[in-house]
Write a structure and sequence with these properties.
Structural class of chain A: alpha+beta
Helix content of chain B: 10-25%
Strand content of chain B: 35-45%
Largest sheet of chain B: 24 strands, parallel
Number of helices of chain A: 5
Radius of gyration of chain B: 29 Å
Distance between the termini of chain B: 84 Å
Largest interface: A-B, 39 and 55 residues
Radius of gyration of chain A: 19 Å
Oligomer: heterodimer
Number of helices of chain B: 5
Strand content of chain A: 15-25%
Order of helices and strands of chain A: HEEHEEEEHEHH
Distance between the termini of chain A: 37 Å
Structural class of chain B: alpha/beta
Chain lengths: ~180, ~450
């Protein structure tokens, strides 16, 4: 690809060292979210330091931050997984960083997330089940299920909206529990 | 002494009578006990008007009927012993009107659940969201004054949130120092018109709110002016979007995953990025003035958009696009373009072409922005011109700027003319006097 060649050529021309401090075999730790600076690489929104924030550590040490788990999957779909090191999600309750492949997930169209992908993450399966039980809704997803999950920016909701728009006073929406921190 | 006592005895029944005869005007505090606003609201008949004279009133209160609550400088606060989880004022009715109130609260200010309500000339200062509307249609919010806090922008509440609603109007309001000024979520055909929103994160933030109209607003010094996300068929027209430049993510307008939008006749001035079009298709961008931004227009992964009749002037970088093909760009004016009109149709036969070099370089490593316009980079930029057919290009750029909206021109010229005549008159006056004096003497 021309663009990439171009970028590489320039990298050499500018004689910039892109040396990254090697950490041996240790995997990259999650880095802190800075709400003043961090922007989601996919949707361009501010990445909030909340339970929806996720991180993808690239092998060259660069940390990518996203405001919604769905945006992270968009990124890997677009850029491939060659450069992907460790990926982190947050525990819904404690906001503790958990590795993507070790967490349990709950999906429900009524769970509001910043970009309406409607998937949240939990450190333990028990916590996820407890949430499911308490809220009386949601599908439990393991990491393997998550990889098969089809990430849609709430297309159903969009479709429903379009249908509803035909009726001017149509009773609105299907989302009842919202988080206002978007 | 006796006369005094007599007078008091006479006056007492009179005073009582007077108090009884004025039930419509409610005193802020009667005999030391705080006035029970909730009881007054509950006992009012539908259609009744309740007037609140100046003074302090205490919430939270709920309006459950189509009544008219008119404040005359009245201030509503949360009672010290009240629960914190209820909104200060909740409207759960259709066809109610609230006007002239001042709401001051550390929590959630005003919540609307219902249709055809009017909130007019209400001032809200809230720690959390100032006004929230849920599953509500055809309401009018007008003349609101919403001010947030001095906290970090990420910690503030939003100004107006609209969720799962239709056909609401937000007009003639002023919002300052909140998180998002107006946040629309799943709310179609919302009209946001003639508001002033400043010093906030996203002045207008839309998600899945199709066919909405954002027009004639003044959006100044926010992180982003208008953030249109996941949208179909909305319009952003006639706004003044200026000085979104203080934040690393600042931009005038963002279109993210948007189709069939119309962005027209806006003045987009002095922003970090004027207009950012990302993963957006079939949008019409016309008649905008894109002035003095660091980067006028940035486009990524976008197709089939149409740019016409726009004016690009004084931007450090006019426009850049990557991974964006099949966009139609014609008849725009670029102040840095050296055009040549061979057939006299006012359009240049030489195209305007924008190199994406700098953008693609800095996309991966933003720190390379430091090398902007350095000699080496200029040379490199000139070297990589092999595949210009994929660059952003205007095939027939205008040779003179497109004519500004006639209405604007008239409005601005009349006072200018009067002012110049006045100056001219004042300048000439001493001479006339001198001439007269010399003639008469």
């Amino acid at each position: 690809m021309k663009k990439r060649q171009m970028v590489y050529a320039v990298l050499t021309a500018l004689v910039l060292s892109t040396s990254v401090v090697g950490c041996g075999n240790e995997e990259a730790k999650p880095v802190a979210i800075d709400e003043k600076v961090d922007k989601c690489d996919i949707c361009n929104m501010t990445v909030k330091n909340n339970q929806f924030a996720v991180e993808l550590m690239q092998k060259d040490g660069k940390a990518m931050k996203f405001d919604d788990l769905g945006c992270l999957f968009q990124w890997t779909e677009k850029n491939g997984k060659d450069q992907v090191g460790t990926q982190y999600v947050r525990d819904y309750a404690t906001q503790e960083w958990v590795k993507l492949d070790e967490a349990t997930y709950v999906f429900d169209k009524e769970i509001a997330t910043p970009m309406a992908y409607n998937v949240i993450s939990f450190k333990s399966k028990a916590d996820a089940e407890a949430f499911q039980k308490k809220e009386g809704k949601g599908d439990l997803l393991s990491y393997e299920d998550l990889l098969k999950h089809t990430w849609e920016r709430n297309k159903d909701m969009m479709k429903k909206m379009m249908e509803m728009s035909k009726d001017k006073h149509g009773e609105g929406g299907n989302s009842s529990s919202h988080s206002s921190g978007m | 002494m006796k006369a005094y006592a007599k007078a008091v005895w006479l006056a007492l029944p009179l005073l009582t009578l007077a108090a009884l005869m004025l039930p419509a005007r409610l005193p802020a505090e009667a005999a030391g006990a705080p006035f029970d606003l909730q009881r007054a609201l509950d006992s009012a008949q539908p259609g009744a008007e309740i007037r609140l004279p100046a003074g302090d009133y205490f919430g939270p209160v709920v309006i459950r009927k189509p009544i008219k609550l008119v404040g005359e400088g009245a201030q509503l606060r949360r009672a010290a012993d009240a629960a914190a989880d209820q909104p200060l004022l909740l409207i759960e009715a259709n066809g109610a009107t609230v006007s002239g109130l001042q709401l001051t609260d550390e929590q959630l200010g005003l919540v609307v659940r219902g249709d055809d309500n009017q909130i007019l000339n209400v001032a809200i200062q809230a720690g959390q969201t100032a006004l929230k509307m849920e599953k509500s249609n055809c309401n009018l919010l007008s003349g609101l004054k919403i001010s947030g806090s001095a906290a970090d922008v990420e910690q503030r509440g939003n100004g107006i949130e609209v969720w799962n609603s239709r056909d609401n109007r937000i007009e003639d309001s002023t919002l300052d120092s909140v998180q998002d000024g107006v946040y629309l979520d799943n709310s179609e055909r919302t009209v946001v018109r003639n508001n002033r929103i400043s010093n906030s994160r996203y002045a207008v933030h839309m998600m899945f709110s199709h066919q909405s109209a954002i027009s004639s607003n003044e959006l100044r010094r926010n992180v982003t002016g208008v953030m249109v996300m996941e949208d179909q068929g909305s319009k952003v027209t006639g706004n003044r979007i200026t000085e979104q430049a203080e934040h690393v993510q600042s931009q005038g307008i963002l279109l993210f995953h948007v189709q069939d939008a119309q962005v027209a006749n806006n003045r987009i001035e002095g922003n970090r990025v004027g207009l950012y079009v990302d993963q957006a298709e079939q949008n019409r961008i016309a008649g905008n003035q894109i002035l003095h931004n660091f980067l006028g227009v940035r486009m990524t992964e976008s197709r089939n958009n149409e740019f016409s009749g726009n004016l690009w002037a004084g931007n450090v970088v006019q426009a850049e696009a990557t991974d964006s093909e099949d966009n139609r760009m014609t008849g725009n004016y670029w102040d840095t373009h050296q055009g040549l009109d061979l057939d006299g149709d006012g359009r240049s036969e030489l195209p305007y072409v924008a190199s994406p070099f700098f953008l693609s370089l800095t996309e991966r490593t933003p720190a390379y922005q430091l090398f902007f316009q350095t000699p080496g980079l200029v040379v490199l930029e000139d070297l990589f011109t092999s595949s210009t057919e994929r660059w952003l290009r205007d095939d027939a750029p205008l040779l003179v700027p497109p004519v500004a909206e006639p209405r604007d021109a008239e409005r601005s010229r009349t006072p200018l003319f009067m002012f110049s005549s006045l100056l001219l008159g004042a300048g000439i006056y001493p001479f006339i006097r001198t001439i007269r004096r010399s003639v008469s003497s």
